[in-house]
Amino acid sequence: MPEQLTEDELISRATAVIATVADERTEDVDALLADLTPRDLAVVVYALANTAVETLALLYGHDAESPEGRAAVADQARRLAVRVMADDG
Questions:
Q1: Contact present, 41 and 33 (Cβ < 8 Å)
Q2: d(CA 66, CA 72)
Q3: CA–CA separation, 47 vs 2, rounded Å?
Q4: Which of 7, 34, 54, 57 is the S-S candidate for 62 at Cβ 3.0 to 4.6 Å?
Q5: C-alpha dist (Å) from residue 29 to 16, 18, 72
Q6: Average pLDDT along the chain
Q7: Do 10 and 43 contact (CB within 8 A), yes or no?
Q8: Which 3 state secondary structure label does DSSP give 68?
Q9: Helices (H) and strands (E) in the chain — how many of each?
Q10: Residue-wise over 25-37: b if at least 16 C-beta within 10 A, else e?
Q11: HSE, side-chain direction, 13 A CA sphere, residue 26
């Protein structure tokens, strides 16, 4: 059974995924995730999603700490997803 990683280690792993993608080394992302348990993978995904929420809030001028701001970010994310799916369509 894989060793349980700490929260700090999982946050570091999420940050490593961001850096790897920014460096356009997408082929290395699998290696960063391969040894994670399903629970740990969920924590990494949550950390990445939370980073996206905070980034969208900053980009669109919403308060990521307030329910209203988070709702506005969720709406913006849905609109972006629809636009991306339409572009891929």
A1: yes
A2: 10
A3: 20
A4: 57
A5: 9, 9, 30
A6: 93
A7: yes
A8: helix
A9: 4, 0
A10: eeeeeeebeeebe
A11: 1
Helix (H, G, I), strand (E, B) or coil at 35: coil
Q: Which of 54, 66, 37 is nearest to 13 (CA)?
A: 37
CA distances from 57 to 3, 11, 31, 45, 86 (A): 35, 20, 30, 18, 23
* HSE-CB for 57 with a 13 A CA cutoff: 17
Q: Scanning the structure block, which residue is given the tokens 């369509």? A: 89
14 token code pair:
């999420």
State pLDDT tens for residues 26-39. 999 999 999 999 99
Tokens linked to 18:
């961001």
State the average pLDDT over residues 65-73: 95
Q: What is the DSSP letter of 1?
A: -
pTM, full prediction: 0.82
